[in-house]
């Protein structure tokens, strides 16, 4: 209600001035209709306002129900997520146990293989009756080791060849760039007479000095045109500022009148609200709030278990 001073720009002033101008024309038209015998539509407007208020209350209740439903869905989603976490935790514990069992079996197998290898070596050294078979197994084991070493050497050799090819490719590109630069023709400086024309035989042909003079004349003409345009802009700006000042005066008057009308409507609304009954809460909202409280308690309990 209070008229707080707000700094407005030009567009805002013109918009607000046009708005108040339309309102004034509508009010004058309404008064003219009343003078000609037309009825006052205030009762219909009041009924329409009440119906809109009821519709607004229903819409607000629907919005509140949607908000509570979203909150309930969020609580249910969090609870489901906690259940999934607990289930994953159980699966992870089971997988860790299975992994430990597999590692134990692998360790036993590895120890058994080492034991067999030692027995084979002992059989070869001591000349056991099964020395021939032990030697064959030992030879296969050595061949396998040699094969793995050869494969690793081949991989290292391949990487070295690729690096060498990349170096050669970069060196070849650098040589091509140097040759391209050397093949460019050298620029030779030539003395130019600024007062001579190009000699092409054209009627409008001019020397560089004449072109510079023509350019200076064009710049002076452009400067004069800019000065004229600047003066025109200044005059238009002053006229616009005067128009804005007039609009501001008109806006101040309208705001004062609207402030008094708003204060009167506020008092009427306050008096009606004090005499009226408070609307009851929707039953759907109460049920949703109750469900949200239950889901929240269940989620906190589940979080404590986690």
Overview of the molecule:
With about 300 residues, this protein is mostly helical. It contains 5 helices and no strands. It has helices at about 10-35, 40-125, 130-185, 210-275, 285-305. Helix 1 packs across helix 4 and helix 2 runs parallel beside helix 5. The protein is flat.
Low-confidence stretches: none
* Percent of residues in helices: over 70%
What is the number of beta strands? 0
Shape field: flat
Number of separate helices: 5
Helix vs. strand class: mainly alpha
Explain the layout of strands and helices.
Layout: H1 10-35, H2 42-126, H3 131-183, H4 208-275, H5 283-305
Write a brief structural summary.
This protein is 83% helix and 0% strand.
Summarize this structure as a short list of keywords or feature phrases.
single chain, 5 helices, 83% helix
């Amino acid at each position: 209600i209070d008229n707080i001073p707000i700094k407005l720009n030009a567009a805002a002033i013109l918009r607000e001035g046009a708005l108040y101008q339309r309102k004034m024309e509508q009010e004058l038209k309404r008064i003219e209709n009343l003078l000609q015998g037309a009825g006052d539509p205030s009762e219909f407007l009041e009924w329409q306002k009440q119906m809109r208020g009821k519709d607004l209350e229903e819409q607000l209740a629907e919005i509140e129900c949607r908000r509570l439903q979203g909150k309930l869905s969020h609580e249910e989603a969090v609870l489901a997520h906690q259940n999934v976490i607990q289930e994953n935790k159980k699966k992870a514990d089971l997988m860790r146990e299975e992994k430990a069992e597999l590692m134990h079996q692998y360790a036993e197998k590895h120890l058994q293989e080492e034991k067999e290898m030692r027995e084979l070596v002992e059989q070869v050294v001591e000349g056991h009756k099964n020395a021939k078979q032990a030697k064959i197994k030992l030879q296969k084991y050595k061949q396998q080791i040699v094969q793995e070493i050869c494969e690793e050497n081949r991989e290292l050799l391949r990487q070295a060849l690729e690096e060498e090819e990349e170096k050669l490719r970069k060196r070849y590109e650098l040589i091509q760039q140097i040759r391209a630069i050397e093949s460019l023709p050298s620029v030779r400086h030539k003395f130019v007479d600024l007062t001579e024309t190009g000699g092409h035989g054209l009627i409008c042909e001019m020397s560089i000095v004449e072109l510079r003079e023509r350019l200076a004349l064009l710049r002076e003409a452009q400067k004069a045109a800019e000065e004229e345009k600047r003066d025109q802009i200044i005059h238009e700006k002053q006229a616009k500022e005067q128009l804005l000042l007039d609009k501001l005066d008109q806006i101040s008057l309208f705001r004062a009148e609207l402030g008094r009308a708003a204060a009167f409507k506020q008092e009427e609304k306050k008096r009606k609200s004090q005499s009226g009954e408070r609307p009851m809460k929707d039953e759907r909202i109460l049920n949703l709030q109750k469900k949200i409280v239950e889901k929240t308690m269940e989620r906190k309990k589940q979080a404590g278990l986690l």
